[in-house]
Amino acid sequence: MSDTPTVLDRICAEKRKQVAELKGRRTIQELLKRAEDQAPPRGFALSMEHQIDKIGYGIIAEIKKASPSAGVIRPNFQPAQLARAYQRGGAACLSVLTDQRFFQGSDADLGAARSACDLPVLRKDFMIDPYQIVEARALGADCVLLIVAALTDAELEQMEGIALGYGMDVILEVHDEAEMARAVKLKSPLIGINNRDLKIMKTDLATSERLVPLLPEGKIAISESGLEGPGDLKRMAALGVRRFLIGEALMRRTDVEQALKVLLAGAGATSLA
Ligand SMILES: O=C(O)c1ccccc1NCC(=O)[C@H](O)[C@H](O)COP(=O)(O)O
């Protein structure tokens, strides 16, 4: 075992510093008040259900300017425009990266994207403290993602409980069998299977192929990362997977509405009117 910190270790260490600093600037009481003042969550899981009923796929389309694995992906980055285009293109939900240091995102990106459309929004960040869950709701987020590899069982349970208490949905992200065994003990049915190994930054769709058949009854797979073309969606659909988190492949295209429509049509989606 190497002691060299992985990318995920570095991101989480940085996040701990940021959250400690944020707590000094904005008290949890202020955040709780702001979270209470928000309109109710838009129903993230439900929106995927509806879109699967309508067109056969529930796509979480991601708004991400840059990433540790790819550097800057989309220099001309306009979250509100992208959100509207994704909605027209057939997305069920949005994922908005709010991490600044590694993804060049911001909380303002989430607000701009959510206000520009009717889609439910995942606050895509690295959640290491319950404070960030309250903050996500205070920003208007409809869903949070918890990376099982980054949290203890007690932390997962606590953060999931806070999010579900707000009526938000929770995606529990796993990358191997041991993480999946921990995730399925929690309440949320949404299990995000990340095809990207966050330790070595390699993507392999075989991860979904290996893990999806192990999911217990009642749990729902979302295949995440490295999905590029219609063939990838069909390959996953053969496993029964209909929910996908897709970022880079769409963000690299000038016209993301058209790119999403082409992706869906190529994968056999129906009635994309
Ligand atoms: O995308 C990265 O390079 C990355 C690196 C370290 C931690 C997380 C990372 N990505 C976050 C994501 O969840 C992806 O943006 C999402 O699954 C979409 O992936 P893709 O379609 O491959 O952009």
Structure description:
The protein is of the alpha/beta class. The protein has 12 helices and 12 strands. The N and C termini lie far apart (52 Å). Helix 2 (28-36) packs across helix 6 (130-138), helix 4 (79-89) packs parallel to helix 12 and helix 6 (130-138) runs parallel beside helix 7.
**How many distinct helices?**
12
CATH class annotation: Alpha Beta
Strand order of the largest sheet: 1-4-5-6-7-8-11-12
Identify the CATH architecture: Alpha-Beta Barrel
Strand content: 15-25%
Element-level helix/strand string: HHHEEEHEHEHEHEHEEEHEHEHH
* Rg for CA atoms: 17 Å
For the record, give the distance between the C-alpha atoms at the N and C termini, rounded to a whole number: 52 Å
Basic shape: globular
Q: What do we call the CATH topology?
A: TIM Barrel
Nearest-integer average pLDDT: 97
Q: Major sheet: size, sense and barrel closure?
A: 8 strands, parallel, barrel
Structural class based on helices, strands and sheet pairing? alpha/beta
Q: What is the CATH superfamily?
A: Aldolase class I
**Multimerization status:** single chain
Q: Tell me the domain tally.
A: 1
Pfam families: IGPS
Keywords: Amino-acid biosynthesis, Aromatic amino acid biosynthesis, Decarboxylase, Lyase, Tryptophan biosynthesis
Pathway: Amino-acid biosynthesis; L-tryptophan biosynthesis; L-tryptophan from chorismate: step 4/5
EC number: 4.1.1.48
List the helices and strands and how they pair.
Elements (H helix, E strand, L loop, with lengths): L6 H19 L2 H9 L7 H12 L2 E6 L2 E2 L3 E2 L6 H11 L3 E5 L9 H9 L5 E4 L5 H9 L4 E5 L5 H13 L3 E6 L2 H7 L6 E5 L1 E2 L4 E2 L2 H6 L8 E5 L5 H8 L5 E4 L1 H4 L4 H11 L7
Helix pairs in contact: 2-6, 4-5, 4-12, 6-7
Bound molecules: the ligand O=C(O)c1ccccc1NCC(=O)[C@H](O)[C@H](O)COP(=O)(O)O.
The ligand O=C(O)c1ccccc1NCC(=O)[C@H](O)[C@H](O)COP(=O)(O)O binds next to strand 12 and helix 11.
